[in-house]
Amino acid sequence: MKAMIVREFGAPEVFELAEIPTPEAKPGEVLVRIEATSVNTVDMMIRQLGPELPLSPPAPAVLGMDFAGTIVALGEGVTTFAIGDEVYGCAGGLADLQGALAEYMPADARLIAHKPSNLSMREAAALPLVGITAYEGLLRTGISAGQRVLVHGGSGGVGHVAVQLARHFGADVYATGGGEKQLALIEKLGAKSINYKTETVADYVAKHTGGAGFDVVFDSVGGANLTHSFEAAALNGQIASTVAMVELDLSVAHFKGLSLHVVFMLIPMLHNHGRAAHGQILTEIAKIVEAGNLMPVLDEQRFTLTEAGKAHARLSSGQGMGKVVIDI
């Protein structure tokens, strides 16, 4: 089969087209003919850092975590899927798991679900990693109808899904963005937009909550921005962070009685721990999509398998809006 592989790690130009053996479905796996995959920040980190990142696969490697496609073979013991089923998931591209930048990919059947019937393959391929991350983070905060929820980075890959899911759960949703296009997308998705470049945390907390703070803060920006999340949260508030790799003074969190939930959705793939939860979440997300309450936003530029490097460059440029998708 054709695949884009990396023999060494570094710039987007490291991808090269190669012919490699078509894999077989091992027990508990399905073999998927890949129709589309999407690029996530973690894919770029693996491509760039390689062995410096503990979760990277050894070279030569096939990267790409998210995918949508059609099952062409079933491994021993798989009973929940059939040949011909259209599926989507996040099931490879790290450690010892082959990725989706190839014509075929083996996938643990626990990590995938039937594709939402009203989405194209391209749209479905944009959802798994960001969808699972947003869903898990919001559920861990105990989100409920009527709460005020703030999403940091509401136009980003994870953020734009978190905005829609929070609305699906009945919350009153606000989201930060830094430009006219970003703020317009946030409004289109049904949240109240906040320009973090022109409004301080104190300003928008006073404006939107009367100074009380937000019940839930979903922080898809992370790092130093976590201090803004602490500042924006209500007393006994809940914070979910997807980017918590930072040294931080927790004093504010202590005096406000905050709960911090760190979401690292790659754990099931990396450690073969709780993988069935991902399949279950993707099944729930499919229902939400089919009910009309969630739609992934795709970048306007299109890429083919041999343009994987260009797709990575597009995401790293910061010029894209929505998920960058590669057609296989």
Automatic annotation (TrEMBL):
CDD domains: MDR6. One of its GO terms (cellular component) is cytoplasm. It is found in: Cytoplasm. Keywords: Cytoplasm, NADP, RNA-binding. GO terms for molecular function: oxidoreductase activity; RNA binding; zinc ion binding. SMART domains: PKS_ER (SM00829). The keyword Cytoplasm applies. Residues 10-326 form the Enoyl reductase (ER) domain. InterPro entries: ADH-like_N, ER, GroES-like_sf, NAD(P)-bd_dom_sf, Quin_OxRdtase/zeta-crystal_CS, Zinc-ADH_QOR/CCCR. Coiled coil: none annotated. Homotetramer. This is Quinone oxidoreductase. It comes from Amphritea opalescens.
